[in-house]
Amino acid sequence: MEEFTNNTILEIENLHIHFVSKVETVKAINGLNLTVHRGKTLGLVGETGAGKTTTALAVLNMIAKPQGHVMAGKITLNGEDILSKTEDQMESIRGNTVSMIFQDPMTSLNPVMTVGDQIAEVLQIHKKLSKADAAREAGKMLETVGIPASRSREYPHQFSGGMKQRVLIALGLACTPKLLIADEPTTALDVTIQAQVLELMKDLKDRLEMSMLMITHDLGIVAEVCDEVAVMYAGTIIESGTLEDIFDRKRHPYTEGLFNSLPDVSRRDQSLKPIGGQMPDPTKLPQGCPFHPRCEYALPKCSQEEPPMHRFSDTHCAKCWLYENTDQCMLVSKDYDPSREVQE
Amino acid sequence: MNDNVILEVKNLKKYFKTSSGMLHAVDDVSFTIERGKTLGIVGESGCGKTTTGRSILRLVEPTSGEVHFDGVDVMKLGRHELRKMRQQMQLIFQDPFSSLNPKRTVCQTIEEVLKLTGEYKNSDERFHRVLEIMEMVGLDERLINAYPHEMDGGRRQRLGIGRALAMKPKFIVCDEPVSALDVSIQAQILNMLRSLQNDLGLTYIFITHDLSVVNYISDDIAVMYLGRLIEKAPTQALFNNPLHPYTKALLSALPVPSLHNRQKRILIKGELSSPIDPKPVCRFAARCDHCTEECLRGEPPLKEVAPGHFVSCFKVAAEMQ
């Protein structure tokens, strides 16, 4: 236990979340395991509907009731069992231990409150600062993210998109949380502004000694800011490992498909190789491996039994039947370069 | 005019009147596109790329400038002639959900366009053509009576493309057609647009903010900044040898999904300045590391510094002399 709290800030074990309505049950999260190490950034990658945001909300114990049900699983954040906490207890954990930056800076700020007051409010509630102290501290937070403190009395509509995202980052960091969850923090921004914001987040993470869970669909951003990667499909992690594991030694057909779908700036004559078909309907997940209907490597077994997680190394694992009897890469990816394998 | 040139845009301007002054959305943009080629227009939000695309089709009426399509001066066409002309010039929108009528099925959406062409008089012929178009854009026959809300983003975009193709156009403005889609679906649509171009001899203007997409699909690329065209070059030349300081920064800011050959990023400071009544100086000057006095004296003209490679920057033009 001692060792656990030292190395790991967040551990999710066998999480199952369903959203139940009168007509159907959406199986959003299906047996998810995830670990974020202290001081590291984990990139959670997947397409729309994979369950990335639901996972983040579960960590904050904010799954929408009454439809949302955590069917099974355990979430340990900084040594504490999150799912057994009362709402009051969660209030003190949110903000102080974990906070979240949402995707859309346009809609996540209060339009009728100055940005300074919005940050100060967080500090008054979570750090019990006096009004004057909170206002001063809010000004400092804005400076940290590169906005002059003098603008703290302005309203969100007076800021550009990039500036608003900086305000959201300042809000998330106000109480120096141990874990910052960033849900697509730069998706709504232009590339040059995105570059500024990513640089800022990297810098702050190191300065404030935080851990980060970066949710994104952009593998370019992952390569830029993350230390580890978990690839998500239909509510479960199908492959995880270090940056090198995933970018240079990928094993799962879905991970390969994601990379092959990306236009490669240096190889423009090559036709893109998209993954056929669409994400499965979460109300009727296929039997066996959820990816098998779209998988070009599928074996007869894949449609019957769910594959186990296969370990390739201490850091790298993938959930796929191809590796039942072998550690050798079974993919014929265009990126596959055997010389890199030897260097391991 | 060169016979191969299908579209020529000359000194296109579109200003919008606002309460605080004239907003220069598109300011003196000129370019040509050859038949069967794709011109990618890139730039960040607010740079005028969408307005450029729409001005060409006269979906917004340009303030001034000339557009020649297949030898015809589009700006001089009357309402009726313009309508006829637009059959050959179509548009694919960014958001396939808000640009499709939610109350029309796939069949009705495409059929409506076919009725406008007046080419298919009897309903059997039309129905047959609907099926043909659906096959062209990879929509399964069983979806013929589906409504937009019953389909996912990728299929909706396929329908949007099918609707544009129903007119048998020669030229299509694709305005961010894949931005709203997941990468695996994005790749399907991009491949389809490429093969449709080959099969039907289409010419595209491809508007996007995504540099890796524009690299994949375009023959030439035009970079816009605050309403101005600042650099235009063949794709390969632009990516291998960007000349304008803004293009350099833009390319280096692109997050590359690989751990090898990583480049040092050029971060540009600050944000876009206001497009309202801009001063007659280089529009990038305030954010540019190489800004000199000359840049603050006047606007740099777009100069051809290498074959097919145009750039609007005093410093680059002087160096390349």
What does this structure look like?
The complex is a heterodimer of chains A (344) and B (321). The radius of gyration of chain A is 21 Å and the shape is globular. Chain A is of the alpha/beta class. Chain A has an eight-stranded mixed beta sheet with strand order 6-7-8-3-9-10-12-11, sandwiched between helices. Chain A folds into two domains: 2-226, P-loop containing nucleotide triphosphate hydrolases (Rossmann fold); 233-343, no CATH class. In chain A, strand 4 (68-77) and strand 5 form a beta hairpin. The longest helix of chain A is centred in the middle third of the chain and has 17 residues, at 191-207. The model of chain A is unreliable at 334-344 (pLDDT under 50). Chain A contains eleven helices and twelve strands. Chain B is 32% helix and 24% strand. In chain B, the strands form two sheets. In chain B, strands 6-7-8-3-9-10-12-11 form an eight-stranded mixed beta sheet, with helices on both faces. In chain B, strands 2-1-4-5 form a four-stranded antiparallel beta sheet. Chain B is an alpha/beta fold. In chain B, helix 3 crosses helix 4 and helix 3 (106-117) packs parallel to helix 5. Chain B contains ten helices and twelve strands. Chain B has one domain: Rossmann fold, CATH 3.40.50. The longest helix of chain B has 18 residues, at 183-200. Chain B has helices at 49-56, 79-86, 106-117, 123-136, 153-165, 183-200, 211-217, 235-240, 245-253, 314-320; strands at 5-18, 21-34, 38-42, 64-69, 72-73, 89-92, 171-175, 203-208, 220-225, 228-234, 303-306, 309-311. The radius of gyration of chain B is 21 Å and the shape is globular. The two termini of chain B are 28 Å apart. Chains A and B meet through helix 6, helix 7, helix 8, helix 9 and helix 10 of A and helix 6, helix 7, helix 8 and helix 9 of B.
